[in-house]
């Protein structure tokens, strides 16, 4: 895929020795994440539990308006509705597309009780074009407690997901890379460390201490 002018990459890699855990890197940020139960794979098939390797665009942000405030983001943002779903039936004409419930074919419900889809970022995987059975509903979403594995999505702690959503831009890209790399996740990415005191300031402090 040709990189757009001014685009940035958010990179996802697995943790060494733990294929269902990984890290999301974006600029100076690095957050722990959950991956698919089968780890990252180049070849993705419906229901295989893999997080698909590759480079993808961001599509939009969805959120539960009864649970969270509208997220700040440069991506398109839309509130979920109680009947929202996502078709995961490979033989259906709306495979890997949003649908409304009740729906005659298999379709995941996006309005969940467990909070995992309180914030969702839709990844542009297998949508332009769509290939039957090549995977559906690949999202960034809220992780289960303990960063338990997903069915193929990338899941983060809510505060970390919101931090990334606020930085995402339509021209940016997601890179899910094969191979494991180590990273020390930053806990809350709070205030940047204070700058080292200037030489002049250090001299004044020493003079006062005398």
Describe what this molecule looks like in 3D.
This protein has 210 residues and is mainly β. It contains two helices and 14 strands. The chain has helices spanning 158-167, 199-209, and strands at 9-15, 18-26, 29-34, 40-41, 51-52, 54-63, 77-79, 84-87, 98-100, 107-109, 119-123, 139-142, 154-156, 173-180. The strands form three sheets. Strands 1, 2, 3, 6, 7, 11, 12, 13 and 14 form a nine-stranded mixed beta sheet that branches. A hairpin with a 2-residue loop joins strand 2 and strand 3. It is globular, with a radius of gyration of 20 Å. The termini are far apart.
What is the strand and helix layout of this fold?
Layout: E1 9-15, E2 18-26, E3 29-34, E4 40-41, E5 51-52, E6 54-63, E7 77-79, E8 84-87, E9 98-100, E10 107-109, E11 119-123, E12 139-142, E13 154-156, H1 158-167, E14 173-180, H2 199-209
Parallel strand pairs: 1-14, 4-5, 6-7, 12-13
Antiparallel strand pairs: 1-2, 2-3, 6-11, 6-14, 8-9, 8-10, 11-12
Largest sheet, if any? 9 strands, mixed
Q: Any low-confidence stretches, pLDDT <50, length ≥5? A: 187-198
* Percent of residues in beta strands: 25-35%
Radius of gyration: 20 Å
What is the oligomer described by this structure? single chain
* Percentage of residues in helical conformation: 10-25%
Please trace the helix and strand order, writing H or E for each element. EEEEEEEEEEEEEHEH
Shape: globular
Termini separation: 63 Å
Structural class: mainly beta
How many helices does DSSP assign? 2
